[in-house]
Amino acid sequence: MISGDVGERVLARATWRLVPLMAVCYFFAYLDRTNLSVAALTMNKQLGLSATAYGLGAGLLFVGYVLLDAPSNLILHRVGARVWMARIMVVWGIVASACAAIQGETSFFVLRFLLGVAEAGFFPGMILYLGYWFPAARRATVTGLFMIAVPLSTAIGAPLGGLLLGLDGVGGLPGWRWLFLLEGVPSILLGVLLLWLLPNRPADARWLSAEEREWITSTLAREDAAVPAMPVRRAVLHPRVIALGLVYFAIAFGLYGLGFWMPTILKTSLGLANLPVTLLTALPYAIGAIAMVWWGRRCDRIGRPVAYTLAPMAVGGVVLAVSAFLTSAPWLGYVGLCACAIGVMAAFPCFWTLPSAFLSGAAVAAGIGVINSIGNLSGFLGPYWVGWMTDLFGSSQWGLVTIGAVMVAGAVLVSRLRVAP
Nearest Cα to 309, choosing from 367, 247, 377, 373? Predict the structure, then answer.
């Protein structure tokens, strides 16, 4: 629990000065990563991409991404977040805009891989950065506020992408090229701004008083001292780190398996035009944004992060798997897609409180990077798997059943995991 006027004042100030900025950056990170799902509504046909090729290209981003997460976090821990995060954002913004130059399968695969390399380290770095500022009793709440960017990037980004597709023919370019070109620019601009707006640590924050800086520093130092020290080499191979990576794989399997395919699934099953499809895609993520913040606050208040992680995973996975068989009632199938998306969103903030329960210092930096790397393998496998199953069976049904089963398996694993030191 947080007590004292100084504590509440300094955490409120840090929340409102840092978390909105971080969320805006992550909004564009996730948008540049997943706007492909909207571009695919017209791009795939124009370029002649099969469902399997599209799923492979969507997932290749995560091959480059997972290779560099842990090294990136260790660099951030050493050199500071300000310069490192600015570098990441500028480079990925350039590559995201360059995706407008895709000509066929080869350039599609190459640019998606390079986008993953460019973005690697951003998300785990931001999770690590929150740990530099907020004690454990507040971390699920601020993580939920930061990660609200994920559902909002779809809730806002999908309709925005639908409107950008409407630029088709302007300047002789198809709408999907305009989508990539324009949506990469804000990341470049935000990356430059981070050099002025993102302090490395509380000790560097001029907008805090000396008393407030001391309060944060001493509070977090006491928490770190309560966690046994662990060498980085041991942390990256620790059984609990690997297990948490597998749990995160299950959560992210639902996130990316649905995220890259939901517009296409809805268009096929409901037979709607592009703009209504993007609006329907946005709805579960808009609700998920509310669920993420509310569920994270409850987790901090009750103090049971394992239970608050597994419950939405299990419910979302079961509902999605069952609804996938309701092919004669596509709107009930849509309810299943919504339930899964909302469950994924709610699980995120509670899950990311778990690594710091048994890791500290450089070990937590490396551990978060490893967990994110393992989890984001599903970013490659999820989209590719759904695409392959769609080509194999002629529908997305069994791909969705698989997503639900993986999420339930992840819920079972986290229920058996001991995260205390």
Answer: 247
Buried b (16+ CB within 10 A) or exposed e, 310-335: bbbbbbbbbbbbebbeeeeeeeebbe
Side-chain half-sphere CA neighbours of 128 within 13 A: 34
List the CATH number of the domain containing 24: 1.20.1250.20
Please state the domain count of the chain: 1
**Any domain includes 420:** no
Torsion angle defined by CA atoms of residues 10, 11, 13 and 19, in that order, rounded to the nearest 10 degrees: 150
Rg (CA), the chain: 21
CB 370 within 8 A of CB 70: yes
Give CA–CA dist 96/89, Å, rounded. 10
- Indicate whether this model's pTM tops 0.85: no
The backbone torsions φ and ψ at residue 118, rounded to the nearest 5 degrees and listed phi first, read -65, -40
Q: Are 133 and 202 in contact (CB under 8 A)?
A: yes
Residue 66 lies in a domain: yes
Domain for residue 421, yes or no? Answer: no
Q: Classify residue 401: in a domain, yes or no.
A: yes
Between the alpha carbon of residue 107 and those of residues 111, 175, 256, 346, the distances in Å are 6, 18, 22, 36
Residue pLDDT, tens place only, 339-398 = 888 888 899 999 999 998 888 888 888 899 899 889 888 877 877 787 788 788 877 778
Domain that holds residue 134: 5-415
By the 8 A CB rule, do 143 and 296 touch?
yes
